[in-house]
Amino acid sequence: MMLFKKIIDFYIDSSIHVALAAYAFIRITILLLNISYEESVAYFGFYGTITAYNCIKYFRFFIQNETQKTIKMKLIFVVSLISFFASIFYFLQLEISSKLLSFLAFGVVLVYGFSFFGKLKSARNWIGFKVFLVVLSWTIITFLLPIVNAKLEFTQELFLYGLQRFVLIYAIMCVFEIVDLQFDAISLQTIPQRIGVKKTKLVGFAFLIVFLILEFFVTNQFTRIDVFFVGLIAVFIYFSNRNRSKYYSNFWVESIPIFWWIALLLFVSNLIFPFPSGS
Q1: Three-state SS for 120?
Q2: In 3D, which of 109, 131, 132, 111 has the Cα closest to residue 120?
Q3: Are 38 and 90 in contact (CB under 8 A)?
Q4: How many other C-beta atoms are found inside a 10 Å radius of the C-beta of residue 151?
Q5: pTM for the whole thing?
Q6: Under DSSP, is residue 116 helix (H, G, I), strand (E, B) or coil?
Q7: Percent of the chain with pLDDT over 70
Q8: Rounded to an integer, what is the distance from CA 127 to the centroid of its chain?
Q9: What integer pLDDT is reported at residue 190 of this predicted model?
Q10: Which end of the chain is more exposed for a tag (fewer CB within 10 A), N or C?
């Protein structure tokens, strides 16, 4: 049992799980917009997420003397190094416009995770700015990158889909904001620190309602899969509190896009819900 826990902890702490969630969101975008699958986009999103998250979380540990590093930290460094070179490999296969967009996402990560010139604090320490940058970077990589690489014309429909992804990720982030109350410095002035846990939950519910409204605007219908997973996110928001373990948000909540993608795959394959998407 202890070995299994250590494996799960490493899987989470090395950012493999959150990267799989990003990969799943990219695949959802490809499925919903009927875009041809591009391995370079999906794997750049996956390996780039591991690299970005681990650099933000562990950079100061990576530059420590080797004798100060634990075995786990050394293994995470290996995973990060492999992911870095893999992300470079797939980055080089992207379209030029996608590369430029990736630089934008990279810039957001730099601003979020690192201080500059010893004076300007990282943006996650700017009052009320932490969540916005996380949501923005996720929207860029999981939604904009696939459509830019596919050279789709940016229509009003795509704008609404992008806004839908933005508010969905924002709603999911409300869970992390509440759970992270036990870790976040009061100076961060995160959403629950500023307005309280109950109101933060209401913000999350409001974003989910906006998601469904946008779904109706775009498709004139509600798909059962979308309604189910929106309801599931609402449940996680409702039961979130500052005393929840890391598995609540970092494993179960981050699993939602993965299961959402799998459900859509089965739906497309008519293995489950064998009815038209408009029924």
Answers
A1: strand
A2: 111
A3: no
A4: 10
A5: 0.89
A6: strand
A7: 87
A8: 21
A9: 83
A10: N
